[in-house]
Write a sequence for this structure.
């Protein structure tokens, strides 16, 4: 891909301390995406970061549901919801971007999950599948037709974002070596299959 990438944007999903080693919801080798992501940033004129940004009593947290344990499923008005350990609380060190991520390359940061009553995996919509984050409007203003995604985690926020990009009519490419997965009860295989079935390009960074 040439440096002057035309109507494309790099979407870097949730490369935050709580999703890296030692974090509250650590993705195995989560920080391993950082060198790949940093290299990818040099290939794009448009770089957008996303950031989980939860209030301290977010209803996706297991701690908000009595005896519920992390990774149990709870019922929310919009449907089943995985109950997560408390993570990425707004303003906390866990919510901060990994220290080695080149945040100065980004033109915008999309914060998601800041409404207490609803979680947000996708960079485009919250988990009710209709409340927008504002990213779609930003991409329209920038005349972006193609998004290239990387970050954490492959099987949740990256996959949901890629699928929503396709739903909105954008070309979507996921750079697999720039992602890491939680793989909760087969979630990685399921997400990979769904992305492939919906026209998401799955590549390695060397293929770009």
């Amino acid at each position: 891909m040439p440096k002057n990438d035309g109507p494309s944007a790099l979407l870097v999903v949730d490369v935050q301390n709580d999703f890296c080693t030692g974090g509250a919801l650590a993705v195995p080798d989560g920080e391993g995406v950082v060198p790949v992501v940093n290299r990818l940033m040099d290939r794009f004129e448009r770089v957008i970061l996303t950031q989980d940004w939860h209030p301290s009593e977010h209803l996706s947290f297991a701690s908000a549901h009595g005896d519920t344990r992390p990774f149990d499923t709870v019922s929310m008005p919009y449907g089943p919801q995985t109950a997560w350990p408390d993570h990425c609380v707004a303003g906390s060190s866990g919510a901060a971007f990994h220290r080695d991520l080149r945040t100065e390359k980004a033109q915008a940061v999309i914060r998601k999950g800041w409404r207490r009553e609803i979680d947000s995996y996708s960079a485009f919509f919250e988990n009710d599948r209709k409340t927008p984050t504002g990213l779609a409007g930003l991409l329209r203003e920038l005349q972006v037709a193609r998004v290239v995604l990387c970050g954490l985690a492959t099987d949740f926020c990256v996959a949901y974002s890629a699928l929503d990009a396709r739903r909105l009519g954008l070309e979507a490419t996921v750079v697999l070596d720039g992602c890491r997965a939680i793989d909760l009860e087969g979630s990685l295989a399921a997400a990979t299959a769904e992305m492939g079935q919906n026209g998401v390009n799955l590549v390695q960074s060397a293929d770009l």
